[in-house]
Amino acid sequence: MTLTAQARGTIAELRESVARLHSELTRNELVVWTAGNVSARVPGEDLMVIKPSGVSYDDLTADTMVVTDLHGNLVHGELAPSSDTAAHAYVYRHLPEIGGVVHTHSTYATAWAARGEPIPCVLTMIADEFGGEIPVGPFALIGDDSIGRGLVETLRATRSPAVLMRNHGPFTVGATARDAVKAAVMVEDVARTVHIAHQLGTPAPLSGTDVDRLHARYQNVYGQR
Fold this sequence. Notes:
Elements: H1 5-27, E1 37-42, E2 47-50, E3 66-69, E4 74-76, H2 85-94, E5 100-103, H3 107-115, H4 124-130, E6 136-137, H5 146-155, E7 162-165, E8 169-174, H6 177-200, H7 208-220
Parallel strand pairs: 6-7
Antiparallel strand pairs: 1-2, 1-5, 2-3, 3-4, 5-8, 7-8
Helix pairs in contact: 1-6, 2-5, 3-6, 4-6, 4-7
């Protein structure tokens, strides 16, 4: 595949940033051993950068990141891409606004996925980041784009950037890979808090009006603009 100098430069930058973002997964204790992955769409190209399969987080560098097309075919790199590549690629093919995808098996979010139960919107943080309950996606086996199909179907019906794939674990998306990592950190945090709240009683859900107002404020006003 022939790429312009600008595209090659963009890919080099993404390989650096995606490698660094994997350290956020370990720093926030969202992954164990070699499980989990971060990917980023290459803007203007039908390509993505993703973690290689089965490589220790300690060994991840920009050079070990691999580049595939949006059907999961290896374009650049010496290692095999993540076993979740087909799912990431399917999301990028069908949701052009998505620039980053993350998958983890973080403990509390995965526990909700094992139960097949959405995380209810009982916290302002859930309203802020996820815009309502965090939904459950269908069960699908790894190996083809079945997980991707379930993700896209679920994402199209929700404002949430996180989906709890049944009996599997959380996938998160964002306009950038960093946004998707942030959502992965936050979904684990609220999954833990709501689990604890259930041990104490029945948490009260937020009203739909309040959820809408909180979500709009957080997405459009909060932080530096």
